[in-house]
Amino acid sequence: MIVVHHMDKWGYANLDLIEERLETDKKAIVLIAGASSSGKSFCATYLTELLKKFSHKAYTISLDQYNVGLSAIIPNKVNLNYFNGELTNIKEIEKRIKKIIYHVDFDSKYSDEVLEKIRVAVADLIPVEKMNMFLKGLKAEWKVLNFDETSVYDLKEASDDVKALLEGKTITEKVYSKIFSERVQSKKKIDGSLYDVIIVEGIYALNSLILNSFSNSLIKNFIAGNPKSLFLRRIIRDAKISSANNTFTTKLYFTNIIKAYNETILPSRLNADCLFFNDMTFEEMRNGELYTTKDEIEVKKNALDSFIAKTKIISKEYQKDIFFSTSGEAFNDSLFSNVLRLREVSYDSGITYVPSSLVHKGVAKRRKDGKIIRPINVIIKEGEFYKVWDDENSCLKDFLSAGFLIGPVKEKIKTKFIYKGQELTLHQVEGDKDYLEFSLPYKK
Which domain holds residue 403? Predict the structure, then answer.
């Protein structure tokens, strides 16, 4: 197995294997599997561009586009788990359910109101005495939805399309919408005779069903990443391209995605010819949904008392930050850190703390004028912690089970006050420097 840590080395390793394959075959198949949000699609795009430089033409089949959609995933699970697969008209049931839930907001796809509409729509397809069981099953399976199970994807359909492309035939491109969580109609045709390399990327690209579908030699890749990279990419990506909110995705990540990865995806790593560790890049850590701009100045501790005595205090907040890191990552809460922290707040002057928010802070932009502009991704908003976890311990347990390291823990006091007509914030961090943050440009 080839093991690499840089994109260019990974690309050229595949180029060598592809060109070796093309010495005896007209076409080569490249499989790119790996953890959710490890960068499989990005790798496929990079490889396609690299191949183009060497006069090869590649087409990528993304297994994500073979997702059968929520109108099929949930009813299929019910049919299997509640009816032992005896609902022979399941395809018609799926079709009618799709009409009902297609334009419904993600969180309400299988709400009680929607379930009643489904009851009416499939009344002639399910016996009256079994209808309540069917609806109960839909509600139960919706609560434990996991997009990373093999049943979510039609791997046979994907394999058939790859075979057709290898034979120079034409297929219809498959399209799945993460906004509607359903397949959408496509008229685009892909002519297999135009390509000499077929790339298949997805979490189950090294699944036995895919591997056993082809007799010729396959070029097999597995893309890995550290726990922080995988978690942040998944949450940030889904917030941008899907209709699911962060609390749903975060809860799903720790309850189902990690489990599915360890049980059904990670074992396929043993089948790989090339293993690529693809952690978050500097560019990724410079992006965020929010950007904070601060003017700060360090304050000497022996000057604090006399300084504060001249101010009007507005408020005082007691906070505790718990930082998450990964193996081999030296924690450094500086401007150049990749910070993921759980914030807790105290309502009794620092005696007890309760969890509040989960935030990622990326690499800050440095400016000559002293301003600090830092990208921020809010994973869990203030006040929404309990939508995901019951308490601090359950949160920390989830992060530990996902491969994170816990710590350090820092307590902070934020005092807001008015000094000469300007609002300032004093940050006093346990074991660290005290500094003032200015809400307006600082003037000496």
Answer: 285-438
CB 51 within 8 A of CB 252: no
Do residues 267 and 416 share a domain? no
In a domain, 444, yes or no: no
- Residue (of 438, 423, 99, 84) closest to 294 by Cα position: 438
Q: How far are the Cα atoms of 30, 394, 418, 439, 440 from residue 422, in angstroms, in the given order?
A: 61, 42, 5, 8, 7
Assess if residue 443 is contained within a domain. Answer: no
Q: Residue 39: which CATH number?
A: 3.40.50.300
pTM above 0.85, yes or no: no
Tokens, residue 248: 């749903």
Query: Closest Cα partner for 419 from 299, 279, 321, 324?
Result: 299
Buried b (16+ CB within 10 A) or exposed e, 182-211: bbeeeeeebebeebbbbbbbbbbbbbeebe
Q: What does the pLDDT look like over 390-408, one tens digit per residue?
A: 999 999 999 999 999 998 8
If you average pLDDT over residues 247-262, what whole number do you get? 89
The pLDDT of residue 300: 66
Look at residues 215, 249, 280 and tell me which one is the last residue of a structural domain: 280
Please report the beta strands in 286-353, taking only residues with DSSP state E, as ranges in sequence order: 290-299, 312-325, 339-346
Q: What is the pLDDT of residues 312-336, one digit of tens each?
A: 888 889 999 999 988 877 655 454 4
Residues 222, 246, single domain; the answer is: yes
- pLDDT of 303 above 60: yes
Report the number of distinct structural domains present in the chain: 3
User: Rounded mean pLDDT of 138-154?
Assistant: 90
Q: 392 and 350, same structural domain?
A: yes
Residue 356 has a CB neighbour count (10 Å cut-off) of: 19
207 and 322 fall within a common domain: no
In this structure, the answer to whether residues 170 and 29 fall within a common structural domain is yes
Do 231 and 319 sit in the same domain of this protein?
no
**Residue 386 pLDDT class (50, 70, 90 cuts):** very high
- Write down the H helix ranges in 198-329: 208-211, 227-241, 246-252, 258-260, 282-285, 304-308
296 has a pLDDT exceeding 50? yes
- Give φ, ψ of 264 to 5 degrees: -120, -15
DSSP structural state of residue 72: H
For the stretch 73-129, pLDDT in tens is: 999 999 999 999 999 999 999 999 999 999 999 989 999 999 999 999 999 999 999
**Which tokens is 408 given?**
């350090």
User: Are residues 269 and 342 part of one domain?
Assistant: no
The closest of 28, 61, 44 to 157, measured between CA atoms, is 61
